[in-house]
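Attaching the record inline, Q. Sequence:
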Amino acid sequence: MPGTAAPIKYRMKAYYALPIFKEFTNKNLPLWITASCDIMPFDGVEENIGEAAMLNKAGGAVAFFGTTRTVWANYNEVINRAFLRLVLGKDGEKSMTMGEAQRRART
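Structure, as predicted:
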C-alpha cells in the first residue's frame, strides 16, 4: 500500500512521526519495509525514522528496509511484490537473505 514520507515522518493509514519510532517498545521486533520517498537518506544530517527505529534499544526494529531518495509508486509496486515473494518464500530449502531477495527483485 503506498504511503507518503519524509526523513522524520511516514504516513499510510496512520501517521508515524520520529518520536514514535524513538519510543516504540516491542518484545517481538518488527521488520519495517517502506517504499516512500526519502525515508532514510544515507548522506543526510537530520534524524530519520529508519535510524530512530534501528537505534531504539527498547524495541524499535530488527531491520528497517527503506528508501534513500524519491521513488515512484508504479515502479515500487513491481519491485515490492517481487521482493516480498522472494524474501518471504524459500529458494529450494533455504531461506533467502534480504540482500539477495532485493538483488533478484531488481533483475
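DSSP finds four helices and seven strands in the chain. The radius of gyration is 14 Å.

More tomorrow.
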